[in-house]
């Protein structure tokens, strides 16, 4: 079985547990005057809604664009120009991208006296002395504004700028500390204090990116950390870290990270992810004691920015056989906070879900269920994953992503029928008031 699917399956088994419709064409000149101030931020929350500065609802309908693996560069640029990829996203009416990065990128900037590493060096380090320069040449051929001396952050800047031109929001996601394919409970990046998850460097990295991202007009939200999970390897660091793997520990680290982002950049929304690979926020949304302590989650603990906090959940229950039980599980995990009866009213965004882009999987219970559940709730989402392939993943170069929306060379949709029959209607339904 596909390694990716297996990991996602294993992780699930291991658990107990607006909106103004965007113009579908990418023609900025034709955008009418009401969207002249796009993105009309900063965004804030109002109960379960996200509002722009005019008080209009904003809901994300978008995709994940990974940039947190070994090269620490947004994927796909050896095959296409940034603008061509953005055209694809815009062409189906998406309005948001979850752009991932690794803390290692910022650590290396500090180690290098404040200067970012060139893409030439990053690619050679990740892909070797033969393939690194080859991929560099391909990236430059497709993106002629780049050169060997372009830095990694300049590539992130160019991605954000192209998305901005297309009126697509950027949600910047700290995916992992050590730059590599994510995630497992034994990868050293599972929980604060784990072997490769230094809490101080993490907070420094969040702060750095929050500051850096001020130059991106479309940076409207940031996450604290992708998929917190139990640190299960046998290292001393993992063993010590595991002692705080609980809601009490979660609340301490989450507040630390949220403060770091807010102090650096008071404009962005801050997304909190839950336990068990970000599949459980029930203690937060139900207002239970954050065990083993007695504190309860309260927006007032985010002093001065309680209207900046959003929750995010992931779901990979790909083998679900009942939509109603999938829905009730999601409601229980945290989506209850989107309904009027909830004590805590807060936006909940599904920042990851996804499945094999073959001919039939999208017709199954899991995909069809989420394609209705999320728009019905007016919940935002970003599907995993845009990538048709990766520069390198788990040691294998030019890795084929069978879950990718795009094909191997990012030139076309991998499954155009899915995009037409299910994804585009889901985007439209999500973005319609
Ligand atoms: C947001 O959308 C909901 C559901 O369509 C609607 O009831 C509410 O009035 C909207 N809020 C604003 C400010 O447009």
From TrEMBL:
Signal peptide feature range: 1-21
InterPro entries per UniProt: GH (IPR017853), Glyco_hydro_5 (IPR001547)
Glycoside hydrolase family domain location: 79-387
Origin: domain of life: Eukaryota
SUPFAM superfamilies listed in its UniProt record: (Trans)glycosidases
Coiled-coil stretches: none
Alphabetic keyword roster: Glycosidase, Hydrolase, Signal
Family (UniProt): Belongs to the glycosyl hydrolase 5 (cellulase A) family.
Name of the featured protein: Glycoside hydrolase family 5 domain-containing protein
């Amino acid at each position: 079985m596909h390694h990716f699917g297996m990991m996602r399956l294993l992780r699930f088994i291991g658990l107990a547990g607006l909106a103004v419709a965007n113009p579908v064409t990418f023609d900025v000149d034709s955008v009418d005057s009401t969207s002249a101030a796009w993105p009309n931020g900063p965004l804030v929350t109002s109960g379960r809604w996200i509002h722009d500065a005019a008080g209009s609802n904003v809901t994300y309908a978008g995709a994940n664009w990974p940039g947190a693996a070994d090269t620490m560069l947004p994927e796909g640029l050896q095959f296409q120009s940034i603008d061509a990829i953005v055209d694809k996203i815009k062409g189906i009416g998406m309005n948001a991208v979850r752009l991932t990065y690794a803390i290692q990128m910022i650590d290396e900037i500090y180690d290098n006296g404040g200067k970012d590493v060139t893409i030439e060096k990053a690619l050679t380090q990740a892909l070797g002395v033969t393939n690194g320069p080859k991929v560099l040449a391909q990236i430059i051929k497709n993106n002629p504004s780049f050169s060997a001396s372009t830095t990694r952050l300049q590539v992130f800047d160019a991605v954000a700028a192209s998305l901005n031109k297309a009126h697509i929001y950027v949600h910047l996601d700290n995916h992992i500390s050590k730059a590599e394919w994510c995630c497992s409970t034994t990868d050293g990046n599972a929980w604060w204090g784990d072997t490769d998850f230094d809490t101080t460097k993490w907070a420094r990295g969040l702060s750095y990116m929050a500051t850096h991202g001020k130059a991106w007009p479309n940076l409207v939200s940031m996450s604290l950390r992708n998929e917190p999970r139990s640190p299960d390897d046998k290292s001393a660091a993992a063993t010590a870290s595991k002692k705080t793997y609980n809601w009490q520990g979660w609340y301490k680290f989450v507040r630390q990270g949220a403060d770091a982002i807010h102090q650096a950049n008071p404009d962005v929304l801050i997304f909190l992810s839950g336990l068990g690979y970000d599949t459980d926020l029930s203690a937060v949304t139900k207002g239970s004691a954050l065990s083993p302590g007695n504190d309860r989650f309260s927006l007032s603990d985010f002093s001065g920015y309680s209207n900046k906090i959003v929750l995010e959940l992931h779901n990979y229950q790909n083998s679900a056989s009942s939509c109603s039980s999938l829905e009730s599980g999601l409601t229980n995990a945290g989506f209850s906070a989107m309904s009027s009866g909830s004590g805590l009213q807060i936006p909940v965004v599904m920042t990851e879900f996804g499945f094999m882009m073959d001919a039939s999987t999208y017709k199954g219970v899991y995909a069809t269920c989420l394609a209705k559940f999320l728009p019905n709730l007016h919940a935002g989402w970003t599907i995993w994953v845009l990538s048709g392939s990766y520069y390198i993943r788990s040691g294998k170069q030019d890795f084929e992503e069978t879950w990718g929306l795009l094909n191997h060379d990012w030139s076309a949709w991998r499954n155009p029928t899915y995009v037409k029959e299910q994804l585009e209607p889901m985007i439209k339904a999500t973005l319609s008031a």
